[in-house]
Amino acid sequence: MRHLFSASYWEQKDVEKLIGRLLRTGVVLASIVAFIGGIFYLYIYGKGQPQYHEFIGAAEPMRHMKGILQGVAQTDGAAIIQLGVVILISTPIVRVAFSALAFFIEKDYKYVLITFIVFCVIMFSMISKMGG
């Protein structure tokens, strides 16, 4: 574990491999979760007729993490799919945070500052609800 925080471990090639693995893992995990949610959803609602004449967005509980997790605990297919979407959206955010950590360990403080600003902009736009 000690070698994980050494500067030699965080050479450019190693960091690129770790970031690539992180992104692949996030996308694959999100796909698996959404696929499992799709199976649950189709098992329950697959025989019904879709109503294409009226758009109905996600239910209110599916718009917040607490409601999504409660739905997942109840094996609600829509909540499981929504969790897959949340994992997919959070994957690049975790990548930015990981990059900041890697730059910090490499003592490349200029890029730490730039990455931290990018991370703050992303978090502010998500928390402030100004993005839509």
What does this protein structure show overall?
Helices cover 69% and strands 0% of the residues. By secondary structure, the chain is mostly helical. The protein has one domain (12-46, 59-127). Helix 1 packs antiparallel against helix 3 (77-105), helix 2 crosses helix 3 (77-105) and helix 3 (77-105) runs antiparallel to helix 4 (109-127). The longest helix is centred in the N-terminal third of the chain and has 34 residues, at 12-45. The N and C termini lie far apart (42 Å). InterPro entries: DUF1634.
Write the layout of secondary structure elements.
Elements: H1 12-45, H2 65-73, H3 77-105, H4 109-127
Helix pairs in contact: 1-3, 2-3, 3-4
Keywords: Membrane, Transmembrane, Transmembrane helix
InterPro entries: DUF1634
Transmembrane segments: 21-44, 79-104, 111-128
Quickly describe the structure.
The chain is mainly alpha-helical and 132 residues long. The protein has helices spanning 12-45, 65-73, 77-105, 109-127. Helix 2 (65-73) packs across helix 3.
| Integer-rounded radius of gyration | 19 Å
Got a strand count?
0
Strand portion, in percent?
under 5%
Major β-sheet, in short? none
* Overall 3D shape: elongated
Broad structural category: mainly alpha
Helix content: 55-70%
Poorly predicted runs: none
Overall number of domains: 1
Number of helices: 4
Mean pLDDT: 85
H and E string: HHHH
Question: How far apart are the first and last residues' alpha carbons, in Å?
Answer: 42 Å
InterPro entries: DUF1634
Keywords: Membrane, Transmembrane, Transmembrane helix
Protein name: DUF1634 domain-containing protein
Pfam families: DUF1634 (PF07843)
